[in-house]
Please model this.
Amino acid sequence: MQNNFYITTPIYYPSGQPHMGHAYSSIIADVLARFKRNANYKVHFLTGTDEHGLKIQNAAKKNGLDPLIYCDKISEIFKDLAKRLSLSNDDFIRTTEKRHHKAVNDLWDRLIKSGDIYLSKYKGWYSVSDEAYYNSDEIIKKGKKNFSTFSGSSVEWVEEESFFFRLSSWEKKLLEFYDKNDKFILPISRRNEVINFVRNGLKDLSVSRTSFTWGIKVPNNNKHVIYVWLDALTNYLSALNFPDTSDILYKKFWPASLHVIGKDILRFHAIYWPAFLLAADIKPPNRVFSHGWILSGDEKMSKSKGNILNPLEIINKYGVDELRYYLMKEVSHGRDGNISLKSLESCINSDLANNYGNLCQRIFSFVKNNCNGKIKKTENLSEADKKLIEQTNVLTRNLIEIMDNQNINNYLKSVINISFLTNKYINDEEPWKLKNNNIKKMNNILHTSLEQIAKISILLNPIIPISSSKVLDSLNINSEDRNFTFLDGKDILPNEIKISELDILFKKLI
Ligand code: ME8
Model:
């Protein structure tokens, strides 16, 4: 039986140009999607744009465009970003699509039928930039303006008729749900944060607005548009053709295996979303993984702070694999990470050019220049060969589990360490000195090195798909063999191999 894996990025607000935070969320999800495909899962990977609400209505107005025309334009930029980041998404959803409206209407109807929605009046704080309601104890006054202490965004006072979702009545059931599903929220620190928040008491949530029009209308009440977060979260269902629960995509992929999100949108995904779903009698997703922020200096990288490193400019200058590798290596699991051009360049030099790139280049050119591209291994491996293989086995032992906990950063550290050890082995074994007196031993060293390169390239494939594929192509490894079965001790390469030419993978930056 084939295992299914449904993974999503957040759907992005097309309120401005994409930035490094967007790239970061997307790359994490793409790495995990590719990893699961290589582990022989049937993967469905979704990304898209979140196009309703006041934030987008205001952005369109500022640009002098009708909201839909504005969204048509900016969502194309996000689609293009997905391509430029080498995302392997199977779908790109826009919340202005018909399939999405249908799903949101159905979810709303279910919540009405279950008695979880009622009409009242909202009086309180709202942040347009976060599209979020805040309690009075989460507000700080600075001069004449008020701000959320949670996000730092400015808030406005809102009083309007609104439909409410009975979130307060889901408090106990949510706590039971977290208890039963101890890995629903990762990392653990975020899980604790959510549980504490819920334990402190949940208030009913306003789920419609009447002071603007850009959104999905409440069924049978045109005065109200549905709160953009109830609308946006439903994208994960619409992309599987919900409400048709007999649809093949829905049957195969719901509940979602993993929502990748940033820590700023954790409450929406880990509290509101499972509550909406439980109320609508739909299974909640299996996991929400919350990553930290990309910082520049010590601040969150954001347009309003003017400290943006533009992902497209970085890709143009350094390459997409380089950016993907750097972000995954530099930022620790679930934590915030500081990025800079200086540390990007030093990471490219140390890990990609001097370590993995150098390993591939030195062995490929030696085999090409001295062995006519052909190597045959004999059975009597040396102690040094065996030691390297054993060290590699130790380092790869827990890799699947590490990735199943979304710890890409630790995964990469182990993989790059294998590359380092292989370079060291080559330096110690000096195969070039054996050319005239011990061809068999030299061939074994070269074959062992190529097998190591094959393993490292398969392991790096989810992170640097373009460069690692070049190496695997040059090793003439079929695409269906580029999977993790070697982790059970199987060799990847046959005893006798012929390699093809390999171009320089990574240029060293001076
Ligand atoms: O939140 N570092 O969209 P969005 C890391 N439409 N991640 C960052 C970041 C930074 N500096 N800045 C933003 C939304 N992000 C909603 C999602 S899902 C149903 C709806 C991350 O475009 C942020 O944490 O504001 C979030 O995960 C994602 O980018 C989208 O942000």
In short: Residues 353 and 443 are 25 Å apart (CA to CA). The pocket of ME8 is lined by residues 10-13, 21-22, 24-25, 50, 232-233, 235, 261-262, 264-265, 293-294, 300-302 (CB under 6 Å). The chain has a mean pLDDT of 95.
